Structures are given as C-alpha cells and as structure tokens.
Design the sequence.
C-alpha cells in the first residue's frame, strides 16, 4: 500500500472508526451490554515484545518492564492503581516471558507459579469441574476476570490469547463488587499494536501432545491495527488413562487510536473444547482414621475411572469493547463492555472413598468393589450468557498542596444460566478399584425437561476511590463500593422462583509511606461480601435440597471477608530487580461449603463457619545481572477454623503451610556462541507446597501429601527462528492437582517432555 493510500485511509476511516468506537463503548445495549475497564494502549508494550522500534507517546517506559520486574507490571484495570508497585496489596504476576519459557498452556499451569493457590475437583456432585481455584484457602471459583471484566462461565481456560496473569490477593470488593472474598484472578488479553509481526509455534510432547498457535499483527495505518490469534491443541494427559485435553480457539482484536489520546479496542474470542474430565482416584481411610489418596498407597498412578460416555464439551464466545479517552489533562473517561455466551455439555464419573472392608481388602492386595460417589457423577446440558458494563471517570487535581486522583463510576453486570440435568438408564454405580472398566453397554443418557433449572444474578455497583498524596513521602488511599445484588432460582419450568437480595458496602483504606524513591511501606484494610447466588455458572442443585442458590423461606447472610495487610515493595538496580514483602490476616465469616451431594452444609443460614488465615509472602523478580533473570516467591500460611460448633480450632482446609515457586534463566550466548549465532538460554526451577487438609470439609479427616516439581528448559533463537525443549517434574514425583474432602484426589503427570519450534517475521 502506498503512502498516499494510507493517508486516504487515515483521513476517512479513522474518524468513522472512532465514532463507532465511542458509541459502542458508551452505549449499554439493552441487558446484553457488559462492561470492562479499558485497558491502556498496548502499542509500546507489544512493539517491544516483538523487538520493533517503540513509539514514545507519553513519557518513557519503566525499565522494570523489560527487565521482568513484576512491580512494574501495568494492571490494565482502570478502576485500580496503574501498576503493581502503586497498589497497596499483595499481587502476584505471571508475565508473558515466564508463560513463554515454561510453555504454560492453561490457566492452572500458569498459576502453579503462585504460592497459596490450591484447586478443588468436582465439588458438590461433580458439578463444578473446570477452573475452580482457591486463593489462600478461600474459594475463588467465579472470581475470574479478563482485562478487569468478568470471565463468565465454568470451563478450562487456555492461554493462547493472554499476555499475562495477575492474582490480586485478599478482599477486593471495593474494585470488583460482590464475591471476591479471597481475591481475584485476572488475565490480560493480547491487543493490536503498532508494527507488523507474524508468529507461529508448533509443539510436540508427551502424551501425544500436538499444539499449534499463531499470532499475527497487522498495522492498517498510523492509528489502526488488527491482531489475530489462533490455537489448536490435542493431547492425552500423561500418566492418566483415557483422559484427554482437546481444544481450539480464535481471537481477533481491532485497535483504533494507537497513537492518540483516545483509543478503542474491540475483541472477539472463541474457545471450543472437547475433552474428558478426570475426577481422579478414591481417598482411602488408613489405620489412623485419616483419608489419603489411594495412589500413594499402592494403586497405579495411571488408574482412571473414566467411562466411555464421559465428556466435557464447551463453546464460549465473548465480545469485549474497551474505550479510553484522555479528554483533558485532568479528566479521563473509560468505558468497558463485555458480552459472553457459553454452552457446555458435561458428563463425569465420580469415584467414591474407600473405607472399612474396602480399605482392608485393598491394603491386603485385593481388588474390592468401589461405589461411586455423588450418585455416580454429574451430567448436564448448560446454556448461559452474561453481560457487564463499567463506566468510569478519573479526575486529577490539587487542593492546596494535596494531590488527588479520584476514580468514580458504575458497574452493572448480569448473568443468566439454564441447565438440564441428565437422567441415566442402565448405568452401574459400582466399580472395581484396580482394573476399572471403561466401555459400557446398555447405558443411555437423556436431558429431560423435568431436569430444568434456571438461575440468574444482577449486580449494580457504585464505586469511588481517592488517592491522596499528602507529601512526597506520605499518601492515603481510600475506596468504597456500594453493591445491590439480587439472585433468583427456579427448579422447574413454571415453578415458583426463589429470590435473594443483598445490599452491602465494601470499603478499603490504606496508608503508604515512601521514605526512599525505590522503597515503600503500606498498611491496608479491605472488606468484601459474597451473597448467595454469585456463582451462577457453577451452581449445584442436583439433589433438590439447598444448593448455593436462593431458597424460599431462608435468609442466607452473605459471607464476609476482612483483610489486614502490612507490606513493603522495593526496587533495585534502576528498577531492574523488584522485591515484595507482605504480612497478612484474613478473617472470613459465614463461610459455607458443599457436601458430596451438592448441598450446602446444614446450618449455613446465618451461622456458617469462619476462617482465619495468617501468613507472610515475599517475592523477588527481575534481573540479578545482565544475563541472569529470577522469578521467585514464597508464602507461609497458617489457617484456623472459627465460628464452628463442631470443628472450632481445626486447621483450615486447603491451606498448605509452606509454598514456594522459583524460575531462573541465564543467557549463555556471550559465553558459548560466536557473534551472529543467536541467543542460547537455559532455565530451570522448582515448585513446592507442603501437605494440607483436603477440603472444603473442615473436619480434618482427609490429608493431602506435599507436592514438588523440578523443571528445566533450554532454548535457542537465531534471527527469525527458535527451538526450545522443556522437561517437567524431572524427579517423577507423585503430585496431586486437586482434591475434594474424603472423596477423591486427582494425580498429575509424572515426568514429561515438550519440544517447540517457532518462527517470527
């Protein structure tokens, strides 16, 4: 295209695109508009990532970004402070370089780098399989966000369209509204940027892994660009019989205003999966009365209870609009909208626990019959959609010598979920432990109208925050959000709909002291509420009793979480190396959990149990020397059960005391290769978490062993080409990815290998 052609496009298309972007960003289209906070323009960040000349629009890039210092990470969530460094709360970031070096393809693989993250498997009749994480032992099942907007649905998330992942720890209701008692997990999407680039990676690995991923960015003219990402992933799961992980997806982002003060991004993302869910192996009761994973006591680690009719098929579409306009030097307007549609057909087999005669026969070398738990497992056909819109204004001004940075706005979101529960015919609910059968005959599944359920939830939040800079060294930060939350549920077509309403304030306050330019100390208090019905996409109501949904005649009080945190963030070597330290305590009251049938534990209404989690976290990220990078963190946590008549004083479940993750890389190019022979890098690390009590049951009757994984990588890049090789869990240690009380635990892969070849133009 000639320069004159580009000039014509610039003069005609840009105004039209900007007008369309403003109208799409500001308009709330009926009940289907969904808000997301505008992410900042990514032109600088993206162009540097592909080593193209960056365009300095405003100011200079933080040197910590290029060095991997996660204190410099830009959050891209407009209603929060700009970066990790400026946020007076513990935040762990998995940057794109770590995702690339480790070849982390799914969100759970990425979060293995975050100490204090644990997983549950198939809570409540197995209905909650998918990404369901706990942060510091507290449920974060639906506290999933992308670019600051809700990531609706329960499914396995792939990282093909993500730049980085941030885990914001502790109560975050002042930013995100109802829910978020333990924190939130936010993913940052890839956006169009200045410059042209073409990337493709092809991976082969253990368990017949075959994965291809492409990333193309095309700059249309000076202010517009288009970015397209695609992925195809097909694999079994190493050391787990008959378990598969197949998915493919596409994402397209159109960016306008790359070099102006008004920018707009419109992003469509589609992810389709067709996998086999794995609910693991039974927990076996040992002679001391404690249940432990049976694969740690003689059962082969590859034993799977999957049957040929098990499946997890999901189809998720999302459309996101992100508008940001710096109208004046003192006022910026953002409007973010998301609409998501998700469909899922799900069938899983749920092994039950082995105790009494079953345990004694197995430990003696026998092959006893194992009853399935949760009635054999869940089956449902699910169709849902959600929408969110966040409109916010940012005001910067002075009153005398005091600087103010005020953010205020409105957040509206709605989600609606239909599902039909499956009805089985001819299914056996027993199995033999050592040689479970896979193929079945005479078994059929239907989704009758009598199995219909519907749940919805609406949350309208008004939020306000003020960052007050009193002096160069002293700042105050206050935020508050008022949420009016309403949820409803009906268990049959034409039936009576139960409703629940909750109106609550979520406040937070911080004081930040910066005695030196590169060192700050802070103290923060924050509070969040989680009403019944926030987890619409993962509701469990199979048995017809009380699930986590509104119920007629019952007034469920919201869970409440209070965070107290004292910490410090420091940078060294001109911000190339960053360190954090945080001491925290979380008090959660009115906590509830599911039993194996999917019902809330009796007595939840207004008298749920509580948790008190105390601990310390520290991290070190960035460059130690020019060629030596470090990414490491450690946490110690101590959790207690409170406000329980039967288990008061017990250790809180799913809270491992000691956790660490470290990944370090070294560039050997200057020591080994001749000039012009490219870049040679080696990397390695380890991940560890100590044993913990399986949950969500609080009786301390099921114990999980420690996890440990030693990993390594070698990579060589020459001009446009790259080759890498990864080895994971080199010691072949038996680890577990998730668990559910005394019922079951899911072993993860042993030693695995992964090779990747890639090209960039």
Sequence:
């Amino acid at each position: 295209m000639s320069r004159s052609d580009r000039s014509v496009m610039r003069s005609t298309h840009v105004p039209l695109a900007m007008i369309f972007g403003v109208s799409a960003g500001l308009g709330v289209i009926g009940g289907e508009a969904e808000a997301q906070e505008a992410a900042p323009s990514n032109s600088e960040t993206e162009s540097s990532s592909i080593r193209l000349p960056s365009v300095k629009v405003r100011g200079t890039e933080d040197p910590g970004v290029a060095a991997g210092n996660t204190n410099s990470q830009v959050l891209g969530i407009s209603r929060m402070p700009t970066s990790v460094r400026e946020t007076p709360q513990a935040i762990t970031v998995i940057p794109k370089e770590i995702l690339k070096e480790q070849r982390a393809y799914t969100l759970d693989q990425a979060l293995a780098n975050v100490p204090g993250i644990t997983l549950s498997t198939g809570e409540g009749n197995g209905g909650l399989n998918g990404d369901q994480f706990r942060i510091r032992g507290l449920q974060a099942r639906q506290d999933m966000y992308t670019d600051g907007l809700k990531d609706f649905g329960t499914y396995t998330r792939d990282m093909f369209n993500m730049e980085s992942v941030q885990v914001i720890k502790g109560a975050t209701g002042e930013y995100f509204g109802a829910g978020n008692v333990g924190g939130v997990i936010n993913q940052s999407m890839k956006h169009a940027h200045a410059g042209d680039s073409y990337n493709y990676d092809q991976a082969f690995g253990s368990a017949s892994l075959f994965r291809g991923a492409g990333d193309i960015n095309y700059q249309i003219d000076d202010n517009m660009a288009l970015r397209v990402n695609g992925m195809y992933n097909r694999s079994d799961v190493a050391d787990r019989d008959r378990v598969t992980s197949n998915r493919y997806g596409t994402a397209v982002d159109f960016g306008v205003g790359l070099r102006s003060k008004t920018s707009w991004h419109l992003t469509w993302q589609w992810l389709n999966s067709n996998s086999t869910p794995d609910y693991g192996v039974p927990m076996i009761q040992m002679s001391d009365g404690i249940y432990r994973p049976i694969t740690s006591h003689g059962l082969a680690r590859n034993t799977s209870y999957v049957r040929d009719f098990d499946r997890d098929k999901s189809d998720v579409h999302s459309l996101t609009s992100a508008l940001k306009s710096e109208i004046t030097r003192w006022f910026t307007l953002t409007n973010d909208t998301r609409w998501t549609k998700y469909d899922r057909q799900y069938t899983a087999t749920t092994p039950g626990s082995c105790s009494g005669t079953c345990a004694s026969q197995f430990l003696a070398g026998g092959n006893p019959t194992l009853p399935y738990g949760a009635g054999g497992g869940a089956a449902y056909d699910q169709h849902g959609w959600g929408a969110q819109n966040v409109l916010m204004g940012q005001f910067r001004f002075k009153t005398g010598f005091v600087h103010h940075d005020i953010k205020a706005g409105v957040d509206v979101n709605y989600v609606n979920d239909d599902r039909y529960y499956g009805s089985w015919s001819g299914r056996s609910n027993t199995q033999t432990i050592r040689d479970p059968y896979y193929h079945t005959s005479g078994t059929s599944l239907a989704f009758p109208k009598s199995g219909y359920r519907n749940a919805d939830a609406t949350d309208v939040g008004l939020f306000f925050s003020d960052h007050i800079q009193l002096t160069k060294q002293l700042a105050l930060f206050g935020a508050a959000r008022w949420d009016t939350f309403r949820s409803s549920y009906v268990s049959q077509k034409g039936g009576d709909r139960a409703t629940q309403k909750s109106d609550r304030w979520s406040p937070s306050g911080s004081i930040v002291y910066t005695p030196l330019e590169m060192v700050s100390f802070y103290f923060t208090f924050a509070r969040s509420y989680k009403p019944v019905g926030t987890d619409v996409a993962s509701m469990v109501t199979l048995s017809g009793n009380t699930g986590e949904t509104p119920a007629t005649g019952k007034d469920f009080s919201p869970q409440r979480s209070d965070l107290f945190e004292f910490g410090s963030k420091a940078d060294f070597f001109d911000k190339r190396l960053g360190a954090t330290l945080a001491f925290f305590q979380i008090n959660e009251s009115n906590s509830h959990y599911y039993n194996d049938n999917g019902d809330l534990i009796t007595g939840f209404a207004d008298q749920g149990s509580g948790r008190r989690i105390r601990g310390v976290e520290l991290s070190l990220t960035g460059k130690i020397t020019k060629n030596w990078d470090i990414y490491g963190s450690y946490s110690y946590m101590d959790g207690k059960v409170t406000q329980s008549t039967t288990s008061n004083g017990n250790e809180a479940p799913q809270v491992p005391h000691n956790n660490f993750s470290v990944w370090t890389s070294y560039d050997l190019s200057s020591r080994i290769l001749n000039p012009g022979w490219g870049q040679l890098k080696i990397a390695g690390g380890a991940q560890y978490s100590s044993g913990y009590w399986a949950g969500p049951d609080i009786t301390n009757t099921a114990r999980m062993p420690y996890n440990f994984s030693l990993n390594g990588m070698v990579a060589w890049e020459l001009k446009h080409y790259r080759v890498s090789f990864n080895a994971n869990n080199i010691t072949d240690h038996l680890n577990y990815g998730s668990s559910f009380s005394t019922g079951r635990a899911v072993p993860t892969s042993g030693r695995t290998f992964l090779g990747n070849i890639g090209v960039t133009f």
